[in-house]
Design brief:
Oligo-1,6-glucosidase, domain 2; globular; alpha/beta; eight-stranded parallel beta barrel; Immunoglobulin-like; 16% strand; TIM Barrel; 16 helices; binds 1-O-alpha-D-glucopyranosyl-D-fructose
Length: 564
C-alpha cells in the first residue's frame, strides 16, 4: 500500500480566535499559539490545521478574507507567523493553512474594484447577474439566512454570496481568478507551509445559467445546488498541476454535499486532485425540517451505517478524514454522547476510541482532547456566530420556531459551542486571556482544563495521548481493513481492523446502560490494547459498563499465509 506521512498523521485544528491570547485584547493570536506548541507536542499530534489568520473584517471570523497575503491585525504580524511556523517545524510538526477561495470578503481589493462598474477589469472576478422580474436572479438561499443574492445599486445588479453578503463568491470560470489564487497558494507554499484545508471547495464550480434550486416545503429559499459542479474536478486538477504537485503537501477538501463517488475523484489515490475530503453525512444525520436547528439526536444505527459505508467504499480508492467536531460543529461529547459530569470523561474517551481506531486521518478539534462541552448560552446576546444570529432572527421572526425553542437548539447546535475559549487552567478566563474574552468562557472551565488534565493520568487528555501514540506503533490502525460487526445493535458499535495477521476488535458502548456482549471466540485470548474502564481480563460473555470502550488485539497465525 502507498504509505505517506499524511495517512499516518493525527491533525489538530486550531481556531486561532479562541486558542490563546498573548496580548490581552481578548482575542487569540499567533504568539499565543507559539506559546502553546509544547502542549501540542506533548499530546503527540503531527499536523496543525490553522483556521484562517489572513486580513479580514471578521464578518465570519476570518472566513471572509480581504488580503490573502497579510495577517489579520488582531492575530499579529507576518513576523509572528514566520516565528510560529519555524517553531512548529522545530518540534517536528507541520502546518496546514485554511484556504478560503470560494469567496473573498467584500472588502477585498478585487471586489472593491469589481463593484465599481460593469466594465471594470475585475467585474468578472465575481458572479454578477441582472435581477428577474424585480427580484433576485434565482431562488437560492444563503447558508447564513436570506437570499444568496445582494442587490448593488451602483450598477443595478445582484452579486452571488452563498454565505454572508460580505462574502461574495469568486467566479472560478474566469481563468484570471484561478491564476490569482494559484499564485497566492504558491507564495504560501514557498514560505514553507505544509498544506491546505480547502474551504467549501466542492462549491467553486456553479451550474451554467445558475438554475433555480428545489424549494423544500415551507422553506423561504432553495438550497444552492452548487456542490460538485460541472468543472470542479477540472479546476482542482489545474490547481494540482500549478501548485500542489510542486510541493510535499497535505491537502483536504471541505466538501459540503460530497458523495462517495465524488470523493473517489476529489481524493483519488492517483494524486491528481487532493489527498482527502471532509464529508458531512454523519454530522447531518440529526438534521430536521429546519436543517441543524433541531434537538434531534443521531441514531447509532444510522451513524454506524454512514461511517461504515465511508470506511468500506473508499478503501483502496481514496483516503478518509475522520472527525466528530470542528469549529462549525457543536462539541462532540455533548452531541454524540453525554456531557453530564458522571459520564462526560468516559464518554469522551469512548467517542475518541471509536473514531481514532478507524481507517483515515483523524482530526482533533481544539478542546476535544480535554472533553470540552457545549456552552450554556442564556440569550442570543451571548452568541457571536453570524450563522447562529441570522438563523435566530430569520426563523423566530418568520414564526417558524419559537424563541425559547430556538435558544435550546442553539445551545445544542450553534457553532459558538466550539468557539468558546480554550480552557487552559482554572485561573480567570481559563487562562485564555488577561483581557475581556471576545466570547464567553464556558463556566465549567474550573473543572475541565488542560492544567488539571495534564497532571491526571486518567484524564481525557492522557487518554488521547495514548490513542495518538497507538496510531504510531500499530500499523493495523492506519492500514488495516475495516469490517462492521453487530450492525443491528442500537447500543454497541463493534468493528474489526485487519492487516495480515494483526487484528483488532473495537467495542464501544454508546449508552449509559450496562450491556452484554459476546466476544467472538478468536478475540478472547487477545490483549487489551486500550480501554476507558479498568478492565483486566476478558470473558466470553462480557458486561460492558456505560460508555465503555475496548480495543482487543490478536495475532491470527492462520492469516499469515492467507492475506485477507
Ligand atoms: O463551512 C462550510 C459550511 O457549510 C458551514 O456553513 C458548515 O457546514 C455549517 O455551518 C454547518 O452547519 C466553511 C467554514 O468551515 C465555515 O466556518 C465558514 O463559515 C463557511 O465555510 C464559509 O466560509
Amino acid at each position: 500500500m502507498n504509505k505517506t506521512w499524511w495517512k499516518e498523521a493525527v491533525v489538530y485544528q486550531i481556531y486561532p480566535r479562541s486558542f490563546m491570547d498573548s496580548d490581552g485584547d481578548g482575542v487569540g493570536d499567533l504568539r499565543g499559539i507559539t506559546s502553546r506548541l509544547d502542549y501540542l507536542k506533548e499530546l503527540g499530534v503531527d499536523v496543525i490545521w490553522l483556521s484562517p489568520v489572513y486580513q479580514s473584517p471578521n464578518d465570519d471570523n476570518g472566513y471572509d478574507i480581504s488580503d490573502y497575503q497579510a495577517i489579520m491585525e488582531e492575530f499579529g504580524t507576518m513576523e509572528d507567523f514566520d516565528e510560529m511556523l519555524a517553531a512548529i517545524h522545530e518540534r517536528g510538526m507541520k502546518l496546514v493553512m485554511d484556504l478560503v477561495v470560494n469567496h473573498t470578503s467584500d472588502e477585498h481589493a478585487w471586489f472593491v474594484e469589481s463593484r465599481k462598474s460593469k466594465d471594470n477589469p475585475y467585474r468578472d472576478y465575481y458572479m454578477w447577474r441582472e435581477g428577474k422580474d424585480g427580484k433576485e436572479p434565482n431562488n437560492w438561499g444563503s447558508c447564513f439566512s436570506g437570499s444568496a443574492w445582494e442587490y448593488d445599486q451602483t450598477t443595478d445588479m445582484y452579486y452571488l454570496h452563498l454565505f454572508s453578503k460580505k462574502q461574495p463568491d469568486l467566479n472560478w470560470d474566469n481563468p484570471k481568478v484561478r491564476a490569482e489564487v494559484f499564485s497566492m497558494m504558491n507564495w504560501w507554499c514557498e514560505k514553507g507551509i505544509d498544506g491546505f484545508r480547502m474551504d467549501v471547495i466542492s462549491l467553486i464550480s456553479k451550474e451554467p445559467g445558475l438554475p433555480d434550486g428545489v424549494m423544500a416545503p415551507g422553506a423561504l429559499y432553495a438550497g444552492c445546488p452548487c456542490a460538485n459542479g460541472p468543472r470542479v474536478h477540472e479546476y482542482l486538477q489545474e490547481m494540482n498541476r500549478e501548485v500542489l504537485s510542486r510541493f510535499d503537501l497535505m491537502t483536504v477538501g471541505e466538501c459540503a454535499g460530497v458523495t462517495i463517488d465524488e470523493a473517489k475523484k476529489y481524493a483519488s489515490l492517483d494524486g491528481r486532485e487532493l489527498n482527502m475530503v471532509f464529508q458531512f453525512e454523519h454530522v447531518e444525520l440529526d438534521n430536521g425540517d429546519f436543517g441543524k436547528w433541531t434537538d434531534r439526536r443521531v441514531s447509532l444505527k444510522d451513524f454506524k451505517e454512514t461511517m461504515s459505508r465511508w470506511q468500506t467504499e473508499l478503501a483502496g480508492a481514496a483516503w478518509n478524514s475522520l472527525f466528530l467536531g470542528n469549529h462549525d460543529q457543536p462539541r462532540s461529547v455533548s452531541r454524540f454522547g453525554c456531557d453530564a459530569p458522571e459520564y462526560r470523561e468516559v464518554c469522551a474517551k469512548m467517542l475518541a476510541t471509536c473514531l481514532h481506531m478507524m481507517q483515515g486521518t483523524p482530526y482533533v478539534y481544539q478542546g476535544e482532547e480535554l472533553g470540552m462541552t457545549n456552552c450554556p448560552f442564556e440569550t442570543v446576546a451571548d452568541l457571536r456566530d453570524i450563522e447562529s444570529i441570522n438563523a435566530y432572527a430569520e426563523l423566530t421572526e418568520a414564526g417558524k420556531i419559537a424563541p425559547e425553542d430556538m435558544m435550546r437548539f442553539l445551545r445544542m447546535r450553534s457553532r459558538d459551542n466550539a468557539r468558546t475559549p480554550m480552557q487552559w487552567d482554572d485561573s480567570e478566563n481559563a487562562g485564555f486571556t488577561k483581557g475581556i474574552p471576545w466570547i464567553m468562557v464556558n463556566p465549567n472551565y474550573v473543572d475541565i482544563n488542560a492544567g488539571q488534565e495534564r497532571r491526571d493520568p486518567d484524564s481525557v487528555f492522557s487518554y488521547y495521548k495514548k490513542l495518538i501514540a497507538l496510531r504510531k506503533q500499530e500499523k493495523v490502525i492506519v492500514y488495516g481493513s475495516y469490517r462492521l460487526l453487530e450492525p443491528e445493535r442500537e447500543d454497541l458499535y463493534v468493528y474489526t481492523r485487519t492487516l495480515d495477521a494483526e487484528k483488532l476488535l473495537v467495542v464501544c458502548n454508546f449508552t449509559k446502560e450496562e450491556t452484554q456482549y459476546h466476544i467472538p471466540e478468536a478475540y478472547r485470548a487477545g490483549t487489551v490494547l486500550i480501554g476507558n474502564r479498568d478492565r483486566k481480563r476478558l470473558e466470553g460473555e462480557m458486561r460492558l459498563q456505560p460508555y465503555e470502550a475496548l480495543v482487543i488485539k490478536i495475532i491470527d497465525e492462520s492469516a499469515k499465509e492467507t492475506h485477507e
